[in-house]
Specification:
The chain has 445 residues and is an all-alpha fold. It is 80% helix and 2% strand. The chain contains 18 helices and 2 strands. It has a two-stranded antiparallel ribbon with strand order 1-2. β1 and β2 form a beta hairpin. α7 packs antiparallel against α13. 51% of the residues are buried.
């Protein structure tokens, strides 16, 4: 069998099949790049809850210190849409490959510097200020990473395998979460004094080695054939973000509402629920973290299957399965949490992440990419993805905490609002076209 297939309508432009060495390198670059970026991003979240309030905000009361620590975490989420716009602009103007190399280098450099930051006790306010600046850099970098990593795989792949190819960037996210959890878990075995003094720094500093491996692979990847084909057309291209917002506003809004459903699951079950079952229900912290790691691994498997089925049946049908399941199971999952049993919590988490979130998230890369033409695809897909993640994962824990207070400690109101989020996503999906069989080159004419 030939290692290349003809690319859409252009008989002279050929792209590698998924079995070719070039395509395997592209898929590995997409997966590893996202895994490394999200390893660094999620590593920060873990350290924000365990370390930073004791290292960088020591001049504050404990309650204010942990709030300040989580505020720096939120800064990274707020920077992600801006990163998607900035990196998307250059990715649509000068190419995907160079921008991806830059985003990976930025993330690795920022994470390594966080691991080397002196504590507030040594340098005063410079320490938390530097921490915030580096967190912004992390947010900008991860904001640009996903769109480029996903597009490099999708735009190299044959049409009938686009969904599966694009999912490698999505699989990298939970894989990075597993890696970050295991890294922190390993150094947490140190005595508490040593862990706070230097142990927590090791996972951050190790990110430079991971980035080195990722860059070696990424540098060998060729530029997107669709982008190269577009470059050959002599036409003036507008500012990508302006064209996205003026010509495709409905795609941005509807795509974001659909994507929020997946990220609401993430923010609810892997952030808020972890705190709820440990602090409010008294479950063993280590056991809960182990369940969370297994849930992330199951999400990778679920994404793999959902993406493959999306190439066969379409993006919308597969994603709609996850959305409808989320709407129907929202209240039962909340009831399962209230039972306070570790094994029931595990089942609830595995259903939420391994089935509901994975069914939506698996085809989501191809789904967003197929909404926009090549000239603005990086910017458009990145904007939809980053808005979904910022609003969904970034604000859900805070909103859920407020809903629990309003309901007097019961979770029924959380279930109702969660179900409503999925219903809104289903309504947004109804007005969108299926992109599985779309000719991406024809969109550029």
């Amino acid at each position: 069998m030939s290692n290349t297939v003809k690319h859409e309508q252009d008989p002279g432009l050929r792209v590698p099949s998924l079995s070719s060495p070039e395509m395997r390198r592209i898929l590995a670059s997409s997966f590893l790049g996202s895994a490394i970026e999200f390893y660094d991003f999620i590593l920060y979240a873990t350290a924000a809850s365990l370390v930073f309030n004791k290292i960088f905000f020591t001049n504050l009361t404990p309650g204010v210190a942990i709030f300040a620590s989580f505020a720096t975490l939120a800064v990274g989420y707020l920077a992600r849409p801006l990163g998607g716009i900035v990196f998307g602009h250059f990715g649509d103007k000068i190419g995907r490959k160079g921008v991806l190399i830059t985003s990976m280098a930025m993330m690795g450099g920022a994470s390594t510097l966080i691991g080397l930051l002196p504590p507030t006790a040594q340098v005063g306010m410079l320490a938390p200020i530097a921490l915030i600046i580096l967190r912004v850099v992390q947010g900008l970098a991860v904001g640009g990473e996903w769109g480029g990593a996903m597009l490099m795989a999708l735009e190299h792949a044959p049409k009938e395998r686009r969904g599966f190819a694009a999912s490698f960037a999505n699989m990298g996210g939970p894989a990075g979460a597993v890696l970050a959890t295991l890294a922190v878990s390993a150094v947490s075995l140190l005595p508490n004094e040593q862990f706070l003094a230097w142990g927590w720094r090791i996972p951050f500093i190790l990110s430079i080695a991971l980035v080195g491996i990722g860059l070696v692979i990424r540098l060998k990847v060729t530029e997107s054939p669709l982008f190269l084909s577009l470059e050959q057309k002599a036409e003036e291209r507008k500012t990508p973000i302006r064209e996205v917002l003026t010509r495709y506003p409905k795609s941005v809004v509807r795509g974001t509402l659909v994507g929020m459903s997946s990220y609401t699951v993430q923010g609810l079950m892997t952030v808020w629920a972890i705190s709820f079952v440990v602090d409010d229900l008294g479950m063993d912290r280590t056991s809960v973290l182990n369940i969370k790691a297994i849930g992330a691994a199951l999400t990778v498997v679920g994404i793999w299957f959902a993406a493959r089925y999306s190439d066969k049946y379409g993006r919308r049908p597969v994603m709609m399965v996850g959305i409808l399941a989320g709407a129907l199971l929202a209240l039962p999952i909340m009831f399962m949490l209230e039972l306070g049993q570790l094994w029931i919590f595990a089942i609830a988490l595995f259903i939420a992440n391994g089935i509901i979130q994975a069914s939506i998230f698996g085809p989501f890369g191809a789904f967003t990419a197929e909404l926009f033409p090549t000239r603005i695809r990086y910017t458009g897909a990145s904007l939809v993805y980053q808005l979904s993640s910022t609003v969904g994962a970034g604000f859900t824990p805070m909103i859920v905490a407020g809903l629990v207070l309003v309901a007097g400690g019961n979770l029924w109101l959380v279930g109702v609002v969660w179900a409503a989020t999925f219903i809104i996503a289903a309504l947004a999906m109804r007005g969108m076209k299926e992109g599985k069989d779309a000719d991406l080159e024809a969109q550029d004419i």
